[in-house]
Amino acid sequence: MKNLNKNGKFGEFGGMFVPKDLEQTLTELAEVYARLAVDDDFLNELRDAYRKIANRPSPLYFAQNMTNDLNGPQIYLKREDLNHTGAHKINNVIGQGLIAKRMGKKKLIAETGAGQHGVATATIAAYLNRDCDIYMGARDIDAQKPNVYRMKILGANVIPVTQGQGTLKDAVDVALENFIKDHKSTHYLLGSVVGPHPYPTMVRDFQKIVGEEIREQLNTIGIQKPRAIIACVGGGSNAIGAMYDFINDEDVELIAVEPAGKGKNSGKHGLSLGTGKSSVIHGFRTLTLLDEKGEIRESYSAASGLDYPGVGPELSMLKENGRLKLGEVTDQEAVKAFVYLSNMEGIIPALESAHAIAYILKNHGQFSKDDVIVINLSGRGDKDVENVYENYM
Fold first, then answer.
1. How many helices (H) and strands (E) does the chain have?
2. CB neighbours of 392 closer than 8 A, spacing ≥ 6?
3. Of these residues, 80, 111, 253, 333, which one is catalytic?
4. If DSSP codes are grouped into helix, strand and coil, which group holds residue 338?
5. Is residue 2, in this structure, part of any structural domain at all?
6. Which among 237, 299, 353, 378 is annotated as catalytic?
7. 3 in a domain, yes or no?
8. Domain annotation covers residue 164
9. Residue of 89, 169, 208, 319 with catalytic role
10. Dihedral sign, CA of 158, 160, 161, 165?
């Protein structure tokens, strides 16, 4: 894999801020990954698993009805929702699962918000015959019941997290605490491009297959490159996955859509890139929501997978150097987009992914009819149907 980041720094962001015992474990993981990232046997095993387990490549779908309804631009959806387990998360868990197997780890633990990462982790744990604990906020467990059932059926132990808001941040807190206690026999399969080194680099490398496929699939139909790549951003793994292959194409806009929740001025949002300050969270430095005392502030989004008060350090760097364009979408706008895509294309998106759809509904006028736009449809909305129908319709 090219461009392996060996020190975990993205400008001022990233790094490793953890207790000494965990630093030793993570340094070992970084060294193992650095070797495997250029090991042909491992890379061949990874590619084979992408095909056999994840069902890659995922399709690039031309949204004809949506394109016609908006009178342009030409809208394509990268159908990560059609991956096995229903989201882009499977790409990362396959890679980390294979690493854990090579390191002889007997147990996988993970955090999850919307449940997609938890389901994917439970899936790879079953495939590799490993024990599996999934830490999930109590509020998210209530909102994402279908995924909780799936994790349990797959054999995972779903552990409710009741501290704090009972959401994704709190699940990460508890998962990290338990990883520190049992790091010798356990691999923490972190789900996004966040956390201490080597996770942001490693997860990005396992997700960049998305953008590589987008480029190849566009070229197959005679399109050299898109005008823009659009993706929702919580921690940021689906966004960096779709965008990474296009970072050096300066004529391609990279649009990161964050959850504005109940509104930017309400204080109940997850606009880490848009309003965050540089701070350390969960063992790494990044743009983070802070209160007036400089302490981490609670985030909010109706989409559980976006409800996180930080963001991946590489995305923070890209924002600070001007490479990212930011978008903001409220809960209500996301729900409207959720229903719109379902009605227009017969595709029910994850509420997280609906934020990216909402962006183009709000901003399609800034593009020409001939512009090619790719939206990363990061997950499917089966998990959200009950919640959206009962609480927002």
1. 16, 14
2. 302, 331, 332, 335
3. 111
4. helix
5. no
6. 378
7. no
8. yes
9. 89
10. positive
Please write the tens of the pLDDT for every residue from 274-317: 999 999 999 999 999 999 999 999 999 999 999 999 999 999 99
Kindly report the CA angle at 91 between 307 and 117, in degrees rounded to 5? 35
383 as an active site residue: the answer is no
Q: Which residues contact 213 (CB under 8 A, 6 or more apart)?
A: 56, 57, 58, 60, 78
State the Cα–Cα distance between residues 252 and 229, nearest whole angstrom: 7
Q: What is the pLDDT of residues 62-121, one digit of tens each?
A: 999 999 999 989 999 999 999 999 999 999 999 999 999 999 999 999 999 989 999 999
| 12 among known catalytic residues | no
Domain annotation covers residue 1: no
**Contact of 211 with 246, CB cutoff 8 Å:** yes
89 among known catalytic residues: yes
Which parts of the chain fold into alpha helices (H)? 20-36, 40-49, 64-70, 89-102, 116-128, 138-143, 145-153, 168-181, 199-207, 209-220, 237-243, 272-275, 313-320, 331-345, 351-363, 385-392
pTM, two decimal places: 0.96
